[in-house]
Amino acid sequence: MDQQPSSLTTPLERLPGVGTARAQRLRALELVTVRDAIVHFPRAYRDFSGAHAFAELVEGEHASVAGTVADVRQRTTAHGRSMLTVLVDGQGGSVRGVWFNMPFMAKKFAVGATVVFAGVPKRAGATWEMSHPEVRLCAAGEDPVRGEYLAVYPGAEGVRQSDVRLAVQAALAHAGEMLEEAFPEEWLAAKGLMPIREAMHEIHAPASLEKKDAATRRLVYQELFMLQLALRLHRAQQEDRKAAAAMVVDTRLDGRIRARLPFTLTPDQDAVIAEISADLAKAEPMNRLLQGDVGSGKTVVALYAMLAAVGCGHQAALMAPTELLARQHFATLEHLLVNGRVNLELLVGGQTQAQRRKALERIAAGESQIVIGTQALVSGAVPFKSLGLVVIDEQQRFGVIQRATLQEGQAEPHVLVMTATPIPRTVAHALHGDLDYSVIEHGPAGRQPVRTYRVVPDQEASWWEHVRKKLREGRQGYVVVPAIEDSKRGLATIASAFEELANGPLEAFRLSLVHGRLKTAEKQAIMDDFRDGKLDVLVCTSVIEVGIDVPNATVMAILDAESFGLSQLHQLRGRVARGAVAGICGAVTPSGTEPLPRVDAFVASTDGFELARKDFELRGAGNLVGTRQSGDDGLLVADLIKNESVMTEARADAHEFFARDPALADPAHARLKKVILGRWGSTLGLGGVG
Ligand code: ADP
Ligand code: MG
């Protein structure tokens, strides 16, 4: 057969049955090519096996049952809605499927046909009822009970599950046979790993739960093995390079740095700083992950480390994942370092060529000692005079580090990665290689959890009354409005929210509006007024998500809370957990009854760790690891956490593999080498291999 690897790059719209419109919708999930679809892994599976006995059904628990259609009935309810009822008799019981406003469904069912209903059963007298169940129609003579599990994919707005399923199946039919096996056959056998083609089929359409687990294990193993090996190769290359600059923080320097900070450090911060100082003093590069919940005080620790580098005559770089974050870090540090001798430099996209050139000159001359910017900009070719430390602020994203590329002959910088995403140590190891690990468990003393409510339409009046009471007591607050920054529509949304509040519930207070369209200076002026207490309420977009820091602001309302991500909600709430007074936060939602999983989880917990886990569950795997921007597919993170033993095994195997074939020179490893370079070569700069 003609094996064209380019089939994996075929656009989805060219596949039979996908079509232009569907392909267009799938772009919202970044699914463009056959390959994208194949590695878009399900986040869950719906049992569609038809194997549940009626006697086993539990009210409220998803199940699938099989039977024969006994009756199909269509009527109009008192409210004028159409209602379709289909009665299915199975062994030992019966179930009624009910659909509203879907009259066309009736055509599907013929009395006497065999069907499977999958859904959530509810007792209805002697029978069961399922509202809008999913349906599998069985062909004549087909056994309704068979292993069938329907994949549920991470979604996006405007994309149907059926779009994704169809595209994935079309992609597998088109190119599934061309997937190349990376591991030698003996290896698969020895490790009990499912071959890649089978694994890809089973992960998308498993014949049984056992097969699904085996497929997951295989894919997780491969992902981790490749990453571990890549990190090992990367380290081997680094070891050939120059060592890091040893930076010793003596008591004088320590005292000078502490004197710059506006508060005494907490015991946790002190402990972490001691770990960092010990690393910096060595001539080998630090590689440390600092984890702590939003507001636990990581930024100050980073500042300490950067001032230590500067105090020892080197430069430090702080990389933020977005430009906005970079700007906010810049503002925070500027504020903390005012009247000092340390020069800050901001490197972001919005600058002119001339501004950037001047900035680079100051950096090259060593005049700018702390450089703050986005990852892309700082990790590009910035001519540091002597870069001693790189701090990477990942916030919620958790990805494989985009390492700074330095000129030949320069010492390696020390690296500190900060993350607010609490990920188990084992997973952190898997993603970042052999890094050291520091945690801030407890934030500054006296912090109280933010009381959080879901505010449904009925309760809005009393919610705003509560807000007014707090404001009259002298507190300040934020009203957060979802808006796509810099879009006309977003601006309209926030402006009209502002009008409504200013002429309605918050009429008596001093309000201002901050959004992405304002010039930096205007924005800064408003923020300053707010900080100085000249404003009571800021109506804003998620501009304030990070960075803003006003301890007297203890009230937050988040409008249309359901349109925010769970970690984003948690980040936002962090803004009103800053002082000694307990904050309150209202997640305002337009509907009162339907469950909103993200909002409900947010209201139920203020524990960042718990919320992160919940977020994994809700969002599924693919997008969690921030490697998408470099063209990689995601890791199966949710599965990583469940598969710790696979992780340990893959890591040990990768290290053993490296010991045996450090240059990946064995011809039997050619495909493995190709896979690993394709996956991680550019991210980790593995140019030297092969
Ligand atoms: P993170 O970066 O972990 O989200 P920050 O470093 O921004 O947290 O700190 C959160 C807030 O706590 C800020 O207002 C900061 O000024 C304050 N803070 C940090 N450390 C201390 C401390 N030791 N004592 C009092 N306040 C602190
Ligand atoms: Mg921070």
Bound molecules: adenosine-5'-diphosphate, magnesium ion
Q: What spatial form do the alpha-carbon principal axes imply? A: globular
**CATH topology tier name of the largest domain:** Rossmann fold
Mean of pLDDT: 82
CA gyration radius, whole angstroms: 28 Å
> In the CATH hierarchy, what is the class of the largest domain?
Alpha Beta
Describe it.
- This protein is α/β, with parallel strands linked by helices.
- The chain has 5 domains: 1-48 and 154-178, DNA polymerase, domain 1; 49-146, OB fold (Dihydrolipoamide Acetyltransferase, E2P); 179-241, no CATH class; 251-440, P-loop containing nucleotide triphosphate hydrolases (Rossmann fold, 3-Layer(aba) Sandwich), CATH 3.40.50; 450-619, P-loop containing nucleotide triphosphate hydrolases (Rossmann fold), CATH 3.40.50.300.
- The strands form 4 sheets. The chain has a 7-stranded mixed sheet, with no helix packed on it.
- Strand 21 (553-559), helix 17 (566-573) and strand 22 (584-588) form a beta-alpha-beta unit.
- Helix 5 crosses helix 6 (209-239), helix 6 (209-239) crosses helix 22 (670-680) and helix 8 (267-280) packs parallel to helix 9.
- It starts with 18 loop residues before the first helix and ends in a 10-residue tail after the last helix.
- Residues 1-5, 485-489 and 620-638 have low confidence and may be disordered.
- The structure holds adenosine-5'-diphosphate and magnesium ion.
